[in-house]
Every structure is written in C-alpha cells, then in structure tokens.
Amino acid sequence: PITDYIVGLPPSPNEDDPDLVLRERDSLFELVESRIGSSITLVVYSSVMDSLRLVELAPRFDWGGPGCMGCDIGFGPLHQIPNPNAE
Fold this sequence. Notes:
The chain is α+β, with helices and mostly antiparallel strands.
C-alpha cells in the first residue's frame, strides 16, 4: 500500500558483518539487484498502523509484472513518511 515505507534493514545476527545502511536510493536498488534469486528482509513502517514490521522479499524478474520487487518505489520530497502530528 501507499502507506508503507522501507526504512532500513534489520541488524545482522552475525557481528562480523558490517551494518547495511541505505543512505541513498541507489543503495536500495543495488542491494535488491545483488539479491535477485534469493531473499532479503527489510524493515517497513506502516503510517496507518504506526508500527514497524519485517518484510521478506524474494526479488525476481519472472513474477509477472515490471521490475523485480513486485511494487513501486518512490523517493524524494513527495514520498516522505508523514508526520502523525500534522493535521
């Protein structure tokens, strides 16, 4: 839904792995492309439920639609997480 926002990656259970921080939009695209054919877990914020959840994706090109994630990705000023206190 348009009320969900990818906010990052869960911490790695392996302390030897560097943290994967998505600092730019290209970081997400590069990460997803590197995981095509395997799975990736993302932290997603729901502005409707005001909560975080883990979502596991399996990027692939043969799912029946455009792209490899099965969703649209928006970025920039029009795609910011809404302020729950704004009216």
